[in-house]
Design goal:
Layout: E1 3-8, H1 14-26, E2 30-35, H2 37-47, H3 51-58, E3 61-63, E4 82-87, H4 89-96, H5 103-113, E5 118-122, H6 129-141, E6 144-145, H7 159-172
Parallel strand pairs: 1-2, 1-4, 2-3, 4-5, 5-6
Helix pairs in contact: 1-3, 1-7, 4-5, 4-6
């Protein structure tokens, strides 16, 4: 079974984390989950009081953010990659600058050093020059920046469809299963 790290940072867009977890579970991936303190609050505010329980129920393993001795803090952990959904500008900055100050940012750094896929659903608007530079720096190290931009050409009927499509795209970028995102038919 394929093992994937899912990080949820505190940016708005907590539903992206939930949708990503559901997609990973649906393709049979084992999910190693790590959630920032701000993300716990954002999950509750944006997705309901039980959102944290929902996402931990889907995860195979839940890791406390302060446990930098967790298996996912080491390159020897056999994972296929990591998605941070959503990725706050704080987490992006830490990842881009190698500040492994919590398990989420350490696990992301491990993906980069091991040359594994790292998908960052960066969530902020408008962007400052610092944000853009951090995105460039993370990209130069091998991360994939996937801002949660709707594919309007797919004519989504609801916000849930938009979120679902973006999350599916993130999972597809790991190349661990046949594509699950809707594809453009032309």
């Amino acid at each position: 079974m394929t093992r994937v790290v899912l990080g949820i940072a505190g940016a708005s867009g907590a539903a992206l984390g939930l949708a990503t977890a559901r997609h990973l579970a649906a393709i049979g991936a084992e999910i190693d989950l790590v959630v920032s303190a701000a993300a716990e609050r954002t999950l509750a505010e944006e997705c309901g009081a039980d959102a944290f329980d929902q996402i931990t129920a889907v995860a195979t393993r839940f890791h406390e953010r302060g446990n930098i001795g967790a298996s996912i803090a080491s390159g020897s952990a056999p994972v296929a990659g990591m998605i941070v959904a959503p990725c706050s500008m704080r987490s992006l900055a830490a990842i881009a600058n190698g500040l492994d100050d919590n398990l989420l940012t350490r696990a992301a750094s491990v993906q980069l050093k091991e040359r594994r896929p790292l998908v960052l659903m960066t969530r902020e608007a408008p962007l400052t020059l610092a944000h853009l530079r951090n995105m460039t720096q993370a990209t130069e190290m091998g991360a994939i920046i996937l801002p949660p931009v709707p594919a309007f050409y797919m004519l989504p009927k609801s916000v849930d469809q938009v979120v679902d499509q973006i999350a599916a795209r993130a999972v597809d970028l790991l190349h661990i299963a046949p594509p699950i995102a809707l594809d453009w038919k032309g």
